[in-house]
Amino acid sequence: MKKLVVLASGRGSNFQAVIDALARGNIPAECSGLVTDNPSAYAISRAERAGIPVYVVDFSSFPSKEEYEREMQSVLLNLSADLYILAGYMRIVDTATVRAFAGKMINIHPALLPSFPGLHAQHQALSYGVKVSGCTVHFVDEGMDSGPVILQGCVPVFEEDNEETLAERILAQEHRCLPEAIRLFCEGRLIIDGRRVHILPGNGGPHDYGVSG
Ligand code: GRF
Q1: Which terminus of the chain has fewer CB atoms gathered within 10 Å of its CB, N or C?
Q2: How far apart are CA 82 and CA 199, in angstroms?
Q3: What sign results for the dihedral spanned by CA atoms 102, 105, 110, 111?
Q4: Known catalytic residue: 198?
Q5: Do β-strands 54-56 and 190-193 pair in parallel, antiparallel, or remain unpaired?
Q6: Within a 10 A sphere around the Cβ of 58, how many other Cβ atoms?
Q7: pLDDT, block means (10 residues), the chain with 213 residues
Q8: Which of 11, 14, 137, 178 to mutate to test the pocket of ligand 1 (most atoms within 8 A of CB)?
């Protein structure tokens, strides 16, 4: 059984999608902790309901960003997970932490990277005028939403969309792609090769994973 640790800062609907996939037995893993920087994150209630231990590293209680980052890294190391999942974790992970968990930390981003990295990805997509958008699950590297792509899911962008309607459509894809990427990782099927992530065939053949919407 692989050990997963999820980092989330708020609502935690992606975290819930992971909890549900684990409960259905879709992922050969167990979740050994939720780590949050926000003591009032709704994700905490989701963890408690699922019996998952919660570790709060309250950003606002540290005198400096560096001290927060040191404590966060030490909490993550102590949990010694096979995979660390940024699921709506709203802080940039510092370089030392990224290096400590290279190849073992993934993120979900609400746009088709490399388009629209950073904050307000749905707003960026609408302002640019793209006709499709989606989500990307990728390994975390030292850049901003720039690591090797594992899976992406697409959605159409409609004329009448606003940030909320687009975000909601993308979120449905996030809830599919994130657990799927975690499953592939836990099955040992992801090989990082420079910028590319090769997905090894599974029992169901070379394309037995969900990719597009
Ligand atoms: C998601 O859109 C995720 O891609 C982004 O922040 C949002 C978090 O949503 N990074 P939730 O907390 O998982 O509901």
Answers
A1: N
A2: 18
A3: positive
A4: no
A5: unpaired
A6: 13
A7: 97 98 97 98 98 98 97 98 98 97 98 98 98 98 97 98 98 98 98 98 80 49
A8: 14
Closest CA to 6 of 87, 109, 102: 87
Helix axes 13-23, 43-50, angle to 10 degrees: 20
Looking at residue 212, its pLDDT comes to: 47
Yes or no: say if 166 and 133 are a contact pair by the CB < 8 Å rule: yes
For residues 194 and 192, what is the distance between their CA atoms, to the nearest angstrom?
Answer: 6
Type of residue numbered 175: H
Quote the pLDDT of residue 207: 74
Report how far apart, in Å, the C-alpha atoms of 26 and of each of 101, 186, 199 are: 24, 10, 17
180 in contact with ligand 1, CB cutoff 6 A: no
Whether 146 is in the pocket of ligand 1, judged by its Cβ within 6 Å, is: no
Task: Record the tokens describing residue 133, joined without a space.
Answer: 């958008």
Residues forming beta bridges with residue 7, ordered by sequence position: 35, 86
Q: C-alpha distances in angstroms, 200 versus 28, 89, 98, 160, 204? A: 16, 28, 25, 40, 11
